Structure formats: structure tokens, C-alpha cells
Amino acid sequence: MVYILQNLRRRQKTSDIDTLLVIQYKYYKIREVGGKIMYQKGQYIIYGIRGVCEVMDIITIDRPDGPKGRLYYVLRPYYQQDSKIVTPVDSEKTITRPLLSKEEALELIDKISDVKEMEVTNDKQREERYKEALKTCDCRVWISMIKALYLRRKDRLEQGKKMTDLDERYFKTAEDNLYSELALSLGMKKDEMVSYITERVLAEA
After folding, report:
1. Annotated domain spans of the chain
2. Cα–Cα distance for residue pair 170/163, rounded to 1 Å
3. pLDDT at 202
4. Helix-helix angle 165-186:102-110, to 10 degrees
5. Domain CarD-like/TRCF RNAP-interacting: where (predicted)?
6. Starting from the edge strand earliest in sequence, which strands make up the sheet with 52-61, in order?
7. Do domains 34-96 and 100-202 have the same CATH topology?
């Protein structure tokens, strides 16, 4: 990934990624409403901004102020084993999707160089744009965000400035989400992903 980031062209158009931020979000919301996928216990999924989660259980909860017999997922974030998320199976608030297959993960890596960096023209909207990108659950959007943040950090360092806490936090989250999913899909360790991606992309160049 470092090789890819260091060789970014600064004048790439960003319209494709900007469109993905809207279209991909709507796509997943429509899929949830029109035909909700039922995940299985033990399955790994992507759950919104929390990234990779394991479906630990599917339970029924009767709430006094809600519908009876409503199904809920009990999720555990993969890299936060002491954390737990309980969310309705039919919830439309958070985008979810299955983990990438091995073939899909390899195809994504092979096309990393083609993904353009996300553009944020208004600093006041920067955090909102980062949140939107993470919430899409789209790996291509995460990559575009990582590229944009890398370039922003590079520019600031050249000016003698540090990366802002905001940028650093979202940069780490985007990398964690991307590398966690790719590692699971490929049966590898998360800390092996940067070198693996770099070697594979260089081999294709």
C-alpha cells in the first residue's frame, strides 16, 4: 500500500469516488429494505463503521414498547473481543454486508492503483465526509479515503506540521477496517496485509 500511496498522481479526478459515497450507500440501504440478508451464527460480516464483526448469536427480544418476537443479532467486533453489539436483524440504520470472498479480495487488491483519492474541499465538512466514507462499507471508498489522508499527511509534513488528531483517527480506522477484512478473506494476519498488497501490486506492474 505504501508503494501505491507514494506514486499517487495528484491531479486525478475524484468524481467516481464522490459518486460511490452516495450510490453505494443507497444501494446497500435498498438491499436491506427490499430483501434483507439473514446472516448465520458464526458468520463474519461488515457492520457499519465498526468493520468486521462475528455473528455470535441470533436472539429474540420482547420489548415492552416495541414489537414482540423481534430478532436481534449479537455481534462481536473482531478486534474488540470484549465488546458486544446487539442490533435488530431488520434494522435499516446501519449498513451491513457479507465479508468479501477470497476472489473478491484479490480482485480488489489488483485494482487498488485504479482507485482515485477522495477529495474534501471544505475543511468544515471533513469529519462528516470521513464518517460517510466509513459508513458505506465499501472497500473502494475506504481505499480512496486512505489515499486522500496519506497525501494530506504528506503535505502537512512537508510544511513542518503534524497530522491532525482527526485525520490520524480516521486514517487508522479506515486502514483497520480494510486490512481486517482482507486478512480474514485471504486467511492471513492483519499485520501481513501491507507487505502482501505491495508485493502483489508490484508483481502486476
Report:
1. 34-96, 100-202
2. 11
3. 86
4. 130
5. 38-150
6. 85-88, 70-77, 52-61, 44-47, 96-98
7. no
CATH fold group of domain 34-96: Thrombin, subunit H (2.40.10)
The strand ranges marked E within 1-65 are 44-47, 52-61
- Kindly tell me the burial class for residue 27, based on how many C-beta atoms sit within 10 Å of its own C-beta (0-12, 13-18, 19 or more): middle
Q: How far apart are CA 141 and CA 177, in angstroms?
A: 11
Q: For 102-117, give the DSSP string.
A: HHHHHHHHHTGGGPPP
> Looking at the whole model, is its pTM more than 0.90?
no
* Domain at 100-202: CATH code: 1.20.58.1290
Mean pLDDT, the chain cut into blocks of 10 residues (205 residues total): 50 43 39 61 93 94 80 91 91 90 95 92 90 93 95 93 94 95 95 93 80
Residue 153, all three cell numbers: 499527511
Confidence at residue 121, expressed as pLDDT on a 0 to 100 scale = 84
DSSP 8-class letter at 50: G
Residue 205: the pLDDT is 67
Q: What is the pLDDT of residue 29?
A: 38
For position 175, what pLDDT does the model report? 95
Q: Which long-range contacts (CB under 8 A, 24 or more apart) does 27-31 make?
A: 28/95, 28/96, 28/97, 28/136, 28/137, 29/92, 29/95
Give me the pLDDT at residue 8, please: 46
Rg (CA), the chain: 18
